[in-house]
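pls design
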C-alpha cells in the first residue's frame, strides 16, 4: 500500500514539473524592445518563478542591458523569489491584505509610466485576484476581505467569483492594460481555469472582458452572497464596467497562454502509463461540489476494480466546497475524505488529491497542506482512533481528519499553479 502511495505522489510530481515556469516560459517570451525600456510585471501564485525565469532569459540568455530593465512581481506570501532587478512583493491569498493594495498601487504606477517605445511583459497566473487588490469606489480593504470570505464560502465557481471581482477593482477586468497604453503590452499566462479563459485567470487585468455589471449582480443572487453597502453601490455604478473587446486600450496589446492545466494533466497520464497503469481519463476540466464528484468517482473506481486490471483514474479541474461548518480544509481534501467514505474500505484502491500550487484551501501559509492520501485502511484507522469521518465531513474539517491520521501531503510552495489533480490507483 505504501508503494502505491509513492506512485500517486510520483504522478503528481510529474504534473507539477511539466508546468514549472523555468521550463515553459522562455520560449513564449517576446523579443525585447530595440530602444525603450523592458518592464516585467508579474502577479499570481507563480509570479515569483515566472518573473525569475523571465529576468534570467532577458539578462543572461539575450544579454539585455540591465539598466533598461525594471519590474515588479507580486506573489502570495512564501511564494516570492529573489531577483537581480525585478522587485518582489508578497501579499495575501486567498484573503487579500494591505500588501495586496500597496503592490497594486505600485504596479499601476509602473504601468502608467511606460512610454511608446517601451515593452511591458505581464506574467499572469492564478491567485492574482487576491494578490492584486485596488478596490473601486468607496470599498475599504476590510470590506473587500469580508466579501472575499463570503465568496469563498459560497460554493461559487471561479468564473462566477471573478465576474464579481472584475467589476469591483481599478486593476482587474482590463484596467491594468488601460494604464499601460499606448505602450506595447504582451501578457504571457499560466492558466489555472477551465477552458483557459484569459479574462478569468487572475480576473484578467490586461485583457478584454465580456462579462457585465448586470451579470456580476446576478452572481450575488445565484449564490446567496450578501454584499456590503459599498460593494452593492459599486456594482450599480456604470463607471465600474470592465473594459470590453475592441476598446482602443488594447490596440498595442496581445496575450497568450504559455502553459495550461492540460499540460500538467497529460504529464500525469503519461507518468501513470510509464508506471504500468491503464489510464482512464475522467476529465481535466471538472467542476462541481467536491463531495458529489467524489461519490461519482467512487462508483467508477468500484466498477473498474471488478475488472482486475491495474488502472489509474485521473482527473483535473477545480472543484468547489459550499462551506457550512467551521472546520479546516480545501476542495481536494474534502474530495479525498468523501471518496474514502464512499469507497467503504474497498481493497486495492489508493487515491490522492492535491492542488498543483502546493496549497489546498488553508489559511494562506506556506505550510498549508497541498492535499491528502487515502487507501483501504483509512476508515479502519479512523475507527481505531474513535473518530467519525462523516462528522469531520459534515463540519468541513477534512484537514482535521487527515491530520489525525497523518495522511496530509505538505509539499510547500511548488512555484507553479495549474489547477488540481486527482489520482485513483486500482489493482496491484
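designed seq:
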Amino acid at each position: 500500500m505504501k508503494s502505491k502511495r509513492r506512485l500517486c505522489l510520483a504522478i503528481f510530481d510529474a504534473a507539477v514539473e511539466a508546468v514549472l515556469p523555468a521550463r515553459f516560459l522562455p520560449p513564449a517570451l517576446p523579443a525585447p524592445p530595440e530602444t525603450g525600456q523592458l518592464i516585467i510585471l508579474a502577479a499570481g501564485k507563480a509570479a515569483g518563478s515566472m518573473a525569475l525565469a523571465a529576468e534570467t532569459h532577458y539578462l543572461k540568455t539575450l544579454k539585455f542591458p540591465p539598466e533598461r530593465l525594471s519590474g515588479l512581481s507580486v506573489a502570495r506570501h512564501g511564494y516570492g523569489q529573489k531577483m537581480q532587478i525585478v522587485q518582489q512583493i508578497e501579499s495575501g491569498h486567498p484573503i487579500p491584505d494591505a500588501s495586496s493594495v500597496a503592490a497594486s498601487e505600485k504596479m499601476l504606477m509602473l504601468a502608467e509610466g511606460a512610454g511608446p517605445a517601451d515593452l511591458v511583459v505581464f506574467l499572469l497566473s492564478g491567485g492574482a485576484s487576491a494578490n492584486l487588490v485596488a478596490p473601486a469606489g468607496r470599498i475599504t480593504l476590510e470590506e473587500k476581505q469580508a466579501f472575499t470570505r463570503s465568496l469563498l464560502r459560497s460554493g461559487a465557481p471561479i468564473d462566477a467569483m471573478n465576474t464579481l471581482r472584475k467589476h469591483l477593482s481599478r486593476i482587474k477586468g482590463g484596467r491594468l492594460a488601460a494604464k499601460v497604453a499606448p505602450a506595447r503590452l504582451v501578457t504571457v499566462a499560466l492558466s489555472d481555469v477551465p477552458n483557459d479563459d484569459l479574462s478569468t485567470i487572475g480576473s484578467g487585468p490586461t485583457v478584454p472582458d465580456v462579462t457585465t455589471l448586470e451579470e456580476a449582480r446576478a452572481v450575488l443572487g445565484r449564490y446567496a452572497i450578501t454584499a456590503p453597502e459599498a460593494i452593492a453601490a459599486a456594482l450599480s455604478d456604470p463607471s465600474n464596467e470592465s473594459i470590453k473587446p475592441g476598446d482602443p486600450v488594447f490596440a498595442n496589446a496581445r496575450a497568450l497562454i504559455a502553459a495550461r492545466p492540460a499540460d500538467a494533466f497529460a504529464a500525469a497520464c503519461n507518468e501513470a502509463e510509464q508506471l504500468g497503469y491503464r489510464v482512464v481519463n475522467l476529465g481535466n476540466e471538472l467542476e462541481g461540489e467536491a463531495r458529489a464528484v467524489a461519490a461519482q468517482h467512487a462508483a467508477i473506481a468500484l466498477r473498474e476494480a471488478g475488472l482486475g486490471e491495474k488502472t489509474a483514474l485521473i482527473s483535473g479541474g477545480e472543484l468547489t466546497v459550499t462551506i457550512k461548518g467551521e472546520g479546516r480544509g480545501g476542495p481536494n481534501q474534502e474530495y479525498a475524505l468523501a471518496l474514502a467514505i464512499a469507497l467503504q474500505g474497498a481493497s486495492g484502491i489508493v487515491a490522492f488529491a492535491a492542488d498543483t500550487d502546493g496549497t489546498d484551501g488553508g489559511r494562506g501559509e506556506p505550510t498549508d497542506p497541498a492535499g491528502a492520501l487515502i487507501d483501504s485502511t483509512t476508515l479502519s484507522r479512523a475507527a481505531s482512533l474513535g473518530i467519525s469521518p462523516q462528522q469531520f465531513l459534515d463540519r468541513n474539517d477534512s484537514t482535521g481528519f487527515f491530520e489525525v491520521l497523518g495522511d496530509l501531503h505538505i509539499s510547500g510552495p511548488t512555484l507553479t499553479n495549474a489547477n488540481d489533480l486527482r489520482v485513483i490507483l486500482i489493482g496491484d
